[in-house]
Amino acid sequence: MKFIFLLIPFILFARINPFEPVLTPNEGNITKPSYLKEIKVKLPNDARVLKKVIFVYETLDSDIKQKEVKINKNIDFHYPFIISQKKEKFQVKTLDFPVFKMYIKNYKIFIKTKNTLIRNFFLAEPFRLVLDFKSKNMDFLTVSKQIKNLFVKKVVLGAHSGFYRIVIYFDTKYAYTIKKDPEGILIELK
Once rounded to an integer, what is the mean pLDDT over residues 34-55? Predict the structure, then answer.
């Protein structure tokens, strides 16, 4: 009998669906990150030599790291330092492979193919995105293309039984989204 009295508080506070979140996420309010454009920094009037600049930043994994840049130059404190970040203008890079075409520009990769994406995953050391596309048995040698001066370093295509695999090598770790398109898939890097 005492056992039933012990269960009553649990029954009173139980929810119908225990897997339903207590808080509902704020849907529809997706915020885009605001990027640094320009900051002016004025040093005190007793500054004469700039020894170093330390940048403290947050990584994709939310780690806090820093990079120190040694300067050791004379300065005039009357003039502010301007820190700015400007996007590079990438030209469209087109790669032709036996079963698809790839277009790379501004941290976006478009793979033009009629085949269906069946799986994708990201690997580290070296950083690479693996994409498997369903296809009938194809027989071709592995194709590898190196890319210079871009966030994509290399693209490798290999044939397997029932699918082909595209491996895209990057210069660092990126968060990515994949969107399906009637012409293929679009990969956006962040």
Answer: 89
